[in-house]
Design a protein that fits this description.
single chain; 53 residues; two-stranded antiparallel sheet; elongated; binds zinc ion
């Protein structure tokens, strides 16, 4: 239970697993840049469409 006090936790980009420096802790960024954000979203959308077939 010692993880609760860990400050400055590193968030990894959901697309490329690259550590992202967090400037705002109240709104953590989940992607290292906008392109990766869209790529991940498109991949998820396409995946859900393919799943429905
Ligand atoms: Zn990335």
């Amino acid at each position: 239970m010692g993880d609760f006090a860990s400050r400055g936790r590193t968030v990894l980009c959901k697309w490329c697993n690259q550590p992202i420096p967090q400037e705002r802790r109240w709104f953590p960024r989940q992607y290292c840049n906008r392109r990766h954000k869209w790529r991940h979203r498109i991949t998820e959308t396409v995946g859900s469409i393919l799943d429905s077939y």
